[in-house]
Write a structure and sequence with these properties.
The protein has about 210 residues and is α+β, with helices and mostly antiparallel strands. It has one domain: Class II aldolase/adducin N-terminal domain (L-fuculose-1-phosphate Aldolase), CATH 3.40.225. The longest helix has 23 residues. The protein starts with a helix and ends with a helix. The structure holds zinc ion.
Length: about 210
């Protein structure tokens, strides 16, 4: 069992990384982890991810009520709670606005083509969820078609959502999605990325024993 203070530290480390990488502007983005039972630990709203401290994280109930800590939880808490309800295997969630991947989301372009082996192995296809007004019930509805089978989703005209068994995995998926988006932009300028074929993908999955 991981102690809560260690989980708080993991969230802060993730927030700092999102800030350093330029994946968030101003007070954008939010990070959460699932605690024991169905309580979650989540970043509060209106705080820069570059400055947030461990003590400012909030513990919330499955219906979004603040159980411990001061302030309001992230405005996207409905999206976080929905993901934890639908995916018992998921223990951490990262939401950010990395510029290249969010550019794809703004252009209405999913990142589902199989192009990079490491993305296929660690993230999978990244679909595009329909536009939803941020912080409303529209957001869980928009990701509903994808949430069971995907670990990263582009949110149209908004940003990116990544999931993981822990904070590090969710963060690494966010980094990989943004890296993929940048590579797809470069490949686009050079005539377009060549998709990996079925045989190449099968061989890749077989060699890493992923079925
Ligand atoms: Zn956002």
């Amino acid at each position: 069992m991981i102690y809560q203070s260690a989980l708080r530290q993991q969230i802060i480390k993730c927030c700092r990384r999102l800030d350093q990488l330029g994946f968030v502007a101003a007070t954008d983005g939010n990070v959460s982890v699932k605690l024991d039972g169905s309580r979650i630990l989540i970043t509060p709203s209106m705080l820069s991810k570059g400055e947030i401290e461990k003590s400012q994280l909030l513990i919330c109930s499955p219906d979004g009520k603040v159980l411990a800590g001061k302030g309001e939880p992230s405005s996207e808490i409905k999206m976080h709670l929905y993901v934890y309800r639908m995916r018992p295997d998921i223990k951490a969630i990262v939401h950010a606005h990395p510029p290249a991947a969010t550019g794809f989301a703004a252009a209405g372009r999913a990142l589902t083509d199989p192009v990079l082996p490491e993305v296929i192995l660690t993230v999978g296809p990244v679909p595009l969820a329909k536009y939803a007004t941020p912080s409303t019930d529209e957001v869980p509805k928009s990701i509903a078609p994808y949430i069971k089978k995907h670990n990263a989703i582009l949110l149209a005209n908004h940003g990116v959502l990544t999931l993981g068994k822990d904070v590090a995995e969710a963060l690494h998926r966010m980094e990989r999605v943004e890296h993929l988006a940048r590579i797809m932009l470069t490949a686009g300028q050079l005539g377009g990325a060549k998709k990996m074929n079925k045989n190449q993908i099968k061989k890749l999955l077989d060699s890493f024993k992923i079925i």
